[in-house]
């Protein structure tokens, strides 16, 4: 084993053990499912930090760096477009809690559209959580060896097991508590990387980075507009995000979500600078890995640690959200034992695709298209709509998702060219279709 590999294994094991020792032990369901500690709810800073680091997952920053490599800073800005999701979700959840007195997304759906809507929605978010496990752990594996090698698989299994261990202690309390630590680490490590890129040993300037890329549809704008369109539905199928919308007071929640939208987008754009630098140096492959190798062992380990930090924060949030979904929202069993057992189940099931060579970016783009049918459901949450409106809209979104997967969408309806053109226009036409099928039954009923 090389010196780098020894350090990488040390980082995974040491960081996980520290988080395990620091994580609070949940003694009741309020601590485990709602993050109530000493009768106190998370404040604005804690909630904002938890939101940001839960979404700046290993998959996201890998994609941001690679998009910087492909399209320059335009690629980073395009991917940051998804962070409009926080502002959208924050405003909608704030009003739902204030005016509708809803205590969760499931509470809203069951009271307005009935049990069948809750079932369909729960299946969608279970798939989302399932995707989060493998798509993030695969990034960790890529730093230990090529896909398919024993070191690749072992690093994923060990990392998943260690993360599961500390979140089993405290559930949502562990998740939010460790998120604050992980957010602090992320900020420091990102600063180290940026200081290296803009340091005296390189000729890179801020102006050069800012002017990289071309603002055209072919070189990033397709993805930016698709991300902005998806932001009106994407956040609502992510319980990691929405669960945090019902923990603290409505005002604290709204402030946290709005700040997370701005600061999260900035973090993603700054991380894409790694890819922009890689592009300027003519590098190819995984941008973050190649830049790490170019700057030497220390920076490679820093990038490696940033991936471990961000992947762990997403993974622990995924486990705690899945546990709350099956225990509290679906009422399968509200005991601590059941909550902890469900975490073990999603950890095992979510690791299986690692051995099937799944694509990382597809976990974002395809799942985002599949749920565009949620757009009118949440944007028009106060309006009256029959139960059939929910199902028509949601299943229309799933239909357009399949059109994207199988490349069945008519080219005549795609009005731009380049990468992600199909993603943009399938989402554009899909959302229009979902809006129509949601509204038409309301008109008929009148």
TrEMBL record:
<feature type="transmembrane region" description="Helical">
    <location>
        <begin position="113"/>
        <end position="131"/>
    </location>
</feature>
<feature type="transmembrane region" description="Helical">
    <location>
        <begin position="294"/>
        <end position="315"/>
    </location>
</feature>
<feature type="transmembrane region" description="Helical">
    <location>
        <begin position="257"/>
        <end position="278"/>
    </location>
</feature>
<feature type="transmembrane region" description="Helical">
    <location>
        <begin position="388"/>
        <end position="409"/>
    </location>
</feature>
<feature type="transmembrane region" description="Helical">
    <location>
        <begin position="71"/>
        <end position="93"/>
    </location>
</feature>
<keyword id="KW-0812">Transmembrane</keyword>
<feature type="transmembrane region" description="Helical">
    <location>
        <begin position="180"/>
        <end position="199"/>
    </location>
</feature>
<feature type="transmembrane region" description="Helical">
    <location>
        <begin position="424"/>
        <end position="444"/>
    </location>
</feature>
<dbReference type="InterPro" id="IPR038377">
    <property type="entry name" value="Na/Glc_symporter_sf"/>
</dbReference>
<dbReference type="InterPro" id="IPR001734">
    <property type="entry name" value="Na/solute_symporter"/>
</dbReference>
<dbReference type="GO" id="GO:0016020">
    <property type="term" value="C:membrane"/>
</dbReference>
<feature type="transmembrane region" description="Helical">
    <location>
        <begin position="151"/>
        <end position="168"/>
    </location>
</feature>
<comment type="similarity">
    <text>Belongs to the sodium:solute symporter (SSF) (TC 2.A.21) family.</text>
</comment>
<feature type="transmembrane region" description="Helical">
    <location>
        <begin position="362"/>
        <end position="381"/>
    </location>
</feature>
<feature type="transmembrane region" description="Helical">
    <location>
        <begin position="45"/>
        <end position="65"/>
    </location>
</feature>
<feature type="transmembrane region" description="Helical">
    <location>
        <begin position="6"/>
        <end position="25"/>
    </location>
</feature>
<feature type="transmembrane region" description="Helical">
    <location>
        <begin position="219"/>
        <end position="236"/>
    </location>
</feature>
<dbReference type="GO" id="GO:0022857">
    <property type="term" value="F:transmembrane transporter activity"/>
</dbReference>
<keyword id="KW-0472">Membrane</keyword>
<keyword id="KW-1133">Transmembrane helix</keyword>
<protein>
    <submittedName>
        <fullName>Na+/proline symporter</fullName>
    </submittedName>
</protein>
């Amino acid at each position: 084993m090389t010196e780098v590999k020894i350090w990488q294994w040390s980082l995974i094991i040491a960081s996980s053990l520290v988080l395990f020792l620091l994580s609070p032990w949940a003694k009741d369901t309020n601590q485990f499912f709602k993050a109530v500690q000493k009768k106190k709810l998370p404040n604005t800073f804690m909630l904002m930090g938890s939101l940001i680091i839960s979404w700046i997952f290993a998959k996201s920053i890998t994609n941001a760096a690679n998009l910087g490599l492909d399209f320059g800073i335009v690629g980073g800005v395009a991917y940051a477009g998804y962070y409009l999701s926080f502002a959208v979700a924050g405003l909608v959840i704030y009003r739902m809690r204030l005016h509708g007195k809803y205590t969760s997304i499931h509470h809203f759906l069951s009271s307005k559209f009935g049990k069948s809507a809750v079932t369909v929605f729960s299946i969608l978010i279970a798939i989302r959580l399932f995707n989060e496990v493998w798509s993030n752990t695969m990034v960790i594996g890529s730093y230990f060896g090529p896909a398919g090698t024993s070191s690749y698989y072992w690093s994923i299994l060990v990392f998943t097991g260690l993360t599961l261990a500390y979140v089993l202690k405290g559930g949502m309390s562990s998740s939010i508590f460790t998120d604050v630590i992980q957010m602090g680490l992320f900020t420091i490590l990102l600063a180290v990387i940026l200081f290296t890129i803009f340091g005296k040993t390189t000729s890179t300037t801020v102006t050069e980075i800012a002017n990289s890329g071309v603002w055209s549809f072919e070189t990033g704008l397709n993805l930016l507009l698709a991300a902005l369109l998806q932001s009106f539905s994407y956040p609502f199928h992510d319980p990691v995000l929405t669960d945090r919308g019902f923990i603290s007071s409505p005002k604290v929640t709204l402030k946290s979500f709005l700040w997370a939208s701005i600061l999260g987008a900035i973090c993603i754009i700054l991380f894409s600078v790694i890819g922009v630098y890689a592009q300027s140096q003519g590098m190819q492959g995984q941008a973050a890995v190649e830049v790490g190798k170019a700057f030497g062992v220390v920076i490679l380990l820093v990038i490696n640690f940033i991936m471990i930090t961000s992947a762990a924060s997403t993974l622990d949030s995924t486990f705690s959200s899945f546990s709350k979904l099956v225990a509290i929202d679906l009422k399968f069993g509200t005991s601590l034992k059941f909550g902890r057992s469900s975490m073990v189940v999603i950890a095992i099931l979510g690791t299986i695709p690692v051995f099937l060579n799944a694509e990382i970016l597809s976990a974002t783009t395809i799942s985002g298209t599949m749920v565009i049918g949620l757009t009118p459901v949440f944007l028009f949450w106060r309006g009256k709509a029959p139960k059939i409106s929910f199902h028509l809209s949601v299943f229309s979104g799933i239909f357009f998702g399949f059109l994207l997967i199988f490349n069945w969408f008519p080219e005549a309806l795609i009005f731009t060219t380049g990468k992600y053109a199909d993603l943009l226009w399938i989402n554009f036409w899909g959302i229009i279709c979902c809006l129509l099928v949601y509204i038409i039954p309301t008109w008929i009923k009148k």
